[in-house]
């Protein structure tokens, strides 16, 4: 259903260093550098992830209620990838662990990247 997810940044070089290291830890890589945007691909060939400077020239801002969930193969990856994000300077938004919401049980860990975008690592049981 989803082809790619794109989030904004106000410092592309700093965001690229963060996501280059984080995506590599996840087994992915930088696929395309467009100059004002960078596209990452996972090893699974699924949806792409991109970072960009806003096309309209205004500052990038985070969305209220917006979050990107990055798929993890298992609970250990959720924990390891979250630790890597924090090591790279992300803000902890919720430690790795099992959660239940309604009928769903899942492992998740939440963080805000260097621009304040909210993301999580997610594995549905």
Summarize the structure.
With 125 residues, the chain is of the alpha/beta class. The protein has helices at residues 12-25, 75-87; strands spanning 4-8, 29-33, 37-41, 48-52, 68-71, 91-101, 104-112, 118-124.
Which key features would you list for this structure?
125 residues; alpha/beta; 2,3-Dihydroxybiphenyl 1,2-Dioxygenase, domain 1; four-stranded mixed sheet; 8 strands; 22% helix; globular; Glyas_Bleomycin-R_OHBP_Dase; Glyoxalase/Bleomycin resistance protein/Dioxygenase superfamily protein; oxidoreductase
Any overview of this molecule?
- With 125 residues, the protein is an alpha/beta fold.
- It has a single domain, classed as 2,3-Dihydroxybiphenyl 1,2-Dioxygenase, domain 1.
- The protein is 22% helix and 41% strand.
- The chain has two helices and eight strands, in the order E-H-E-E-E-E-H-E-E-E.
- A four-stranded mixed sheet has the order 1-4-3-2, covered by helices on one side. It has a four-stranded mixed sheet with strand order 5-8-7-6, with helices on one face.
- The longest helix has 14 residues.
- The protein is globular, with a radius of gyration of 14 Å.
* CATH architectural grouping: Roll
Mean pLDDT: 96
- The secondary-structure class comes to alpha/beta
Strand segment count:
8
Strand order of the largest sheet: 1-4-3-2
Number of helices: 2
Q: How many independent structural domains?
A: 1
Radius of gyration from the CA trace? 14 Å
CATH topology grouping: 2,3-Dihydroxybiphenyl 1,2-Dioxygenase, domain 1
Following the backbone from N to C, one meets helices and strands in this order, namely: EHEEEEHEEE
Percentage of helical residues?
10-25%
Enumerate the spans where pLDDT stays under 50 for 5 or more consecutive residues: none
For the terminal residues, how far apart are their CA atoms?
Answer: 20 Å
| Beta-strand percent range | 35-45%
Keywords: Dioxygenase, Oxidoreductase
Organism: Rubrimonas cliftonensis
Pfam families: Glyoxalase
Domain VOC: 1-124
